[in-house]
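Training component of the fellowship. As part of building independent skills, the fellow (R.M.) carried out the full modelling exercise for a liganded target. The chosen ligand was MTE. The inputs are recorded below so that the supervisory panel can assess the work.
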Amino acid sequence: MLIKRKEKWQESENSVTGENAYLNRRNILLGAAAAGAATIIPSVLAQPQRKLNALSARKTDYSPGESPSPEEAITQYNNYYEFGTGKSDPAQNAWRLQPKPWSIQVDGLVDKPATYGIEDLIDFNALEERIYRHRCVEAWSMVMPWIGVPLSSVLKKIGVQSGAKYVRFETLADKEQMPGLRWPVLDWPYTEALRMDEAMNDLSFLVVGLYGKELPNQNGAPVRLAVPWKYGFKHVKSIVRISLTEEQPVTTWQASAPREYGFYSNVNPEVSHPRWSQARERRIGEFGRRPTEMFNGYGELVADMYAGMDLARNF
Ligand code: MTE
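Fellow's submitted model of the complex:
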């Protein structure tokens, strides 16, 4: 099983042909759009996304000088294994996901454990837009115009108890909605976790929207995490449970391949994945590769949290 899983990642990492084919297709689509021809992307049309009340005053560009990646790239080239392991599977299959109504179980070391409706946890009148870089462990990257709220605002609402040291997140695991669950590619449900100081860092963001609209299903509707100094697999999607713990949780990818995926997963060009280098990345939509920056370029805002830690051991 482990070997099979590794092959999947390797396929993705070595998917140069697939990626080129994707980019060519994208360029053809964009070219067609520029030429005034109708461009039909069935899976996008199948899910009309409502506009969100994102206050433009609270727009923050955390990726100065870089334009957001094309909407089509962000919504058609995804990792969401519950809907299949291919990059186009989530856009094709995630129409089955029912993001409304949505509730989130909150438990562990919190003052107010309960099952909350999403609107009770996230203040939809205080949404912000943040332009974040997004670096996948597979060495590709994009720039995302996310809409959401700081994770800290939700943690304050539920009341963090003094013994809580970690925040654990769990994705929905419903075979009816998620055809990928039929295969034991990962140990479902998908879980991720952050150390409490990471979770309280202002960059840690709970995302409910993209490009001014509600988050598409394939990107993790109705709510997913964005922690831009970490590899993309920390960005757990369609969150149904938030637990505060004293012990460091074991995450899905750690359990799956502990030599390859650590708890911290900070973007680090100096620490190679055992099967490929992390020194460079392909920005989707660009040709060639660019150097990867330490902490994905967010060092000024996050490096202090890891002072004195050996980041090669704590990868
Ligand atoms: N969350 C769940 N539940 N299942 C997944 O397979 N894939 C992760 C992460 N969150 C994944 C997930 C990986 S590997 C990446 S790179 C990002 O989602 C991709 O987010 P995007 O599709 O919005 O770019």
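The panel noted the following from the submitted structure. Residues 55-306 form a domain with the Sulfite Oxidase; Chain A, domain 2 fold (CATH 3.90.420.10). The radius of gyration is 19 Å.
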